[in-house]
Model the fold of this input.
Amino acid sequence: MATSKELKVTLVKSKFGRLKSHKACIAGLGLRKIRQTVTVIDTPENRGMINRISYLLSVEEA
Done:
């Protein structure tokens, strides 16, 4: 079984006052609170959500 790359994504800015689609991306990545970190698989879908809300996130390879 091949190991897939993972990304550690941390929410560093508030989701309040953002566009509805940006809030949906935050929820889609599994983030709820500021400074919460989640590990997501590096897929094109997750990369797209991360790119859309990159100004709210801190991303590093896990």
